[in-house]
Fold this sequence. Notes:
alpha/beta, 12-stranded mixed β-sheet, 3-stranded mixed β-sheet, 20 strands, globular, binds zinc ion
Amino acid sequence: MRVYSTSGTTGVPCYIAVTPRDLDIWTEISARSYVAAGIRRGRRVVSTYSLGPFVAGAAGDSLTKIGVTHIPVGTGNTERLVGAVRRLGADVLMGTPSYAVHLIDWCRARGIATETLGIKQFAVAGEPGGGDPVIRARIESAFRCQVNEVMGIGDISISLWGECEEQGGMHFGGRDFVHVELIDPASGAALPLEDGATGEAVYTALEREAMPLLRFRSRDHVVVNARPCSCGRTAPRVRCIGRTDDMLIVRGVNVFPSAIRTVVNRFAPAVGEVMQVRPSRRGVQQEPPLRVLVELAPGGAAEPGLAERIETAIRSALVVRTRIELVPHGTLPRSEYKSALVSYADVS
Length: 348
Ligand SMILES: [Zn+2]
């Protein structure tokens, strides 16, 4: 009944077809994940999804099923978004963590006090930054809201995981419809899905009619929290720690750029939010030190010894040697949607 497409990595779109029943199931799974994240009937929800050809456009069907008042404003229209919050009393925002940070800067630049906007909930998705404690704390204190993560994968379901008020990771919302496994991304071997386990999430769509998918690799690298949760949900929780595609192996040690960012962010407010890993060659295998560009805070200058302190912190947390180069605020490319954590700009 509907054919979505993704941007694809080779320039040719990937098509995703659904029957009416497939769409019903997507909507059910996604509604579970959104409700876990605090998106309930009675809330006024501003979404920033682009309808376009993308699966995310179907998120609106799930919001309808939940019974929220949905105010779609599309991508890249911050003026309209803030207007919906101020004039319509919207109290829930949905977007990427990068966009949330952009929104804070946008409001500050216009003298709008973010903490008075009345946002209760910010549901973040689309990149691992929402699980980063520093980025999360920045969004929560700016808006005086709770940040909850949701995560889906277009080929399987619009949204598949949703984080409850305990904020200990996202509960799996696909029970009865989707089977989830964990694998070692290098060998493909199955790993037990137990507390503390880490690996790539792999999904099988058990009920899919139009496009059955068996053991579909998500490229999302997750860590499992299988401890009981105070919200009463019994489904396991995960935190996404990075994309398998972004993973680098530096002299035998697996390193996710998002994990480097988590350590770098501890040095805020001396540093800004934007950093980029610049490998010296293509491919997963890298030699130390790994070059990392880190932006200083707006108007900030490098304190003596700051780069060395960041290098030491990364080495002790992640067992990898880096070379930190501090650059002025605004030097690195940024996007309202997702910020690239790795760039091969240095590789000829
Ligand atoms: Zn819970």
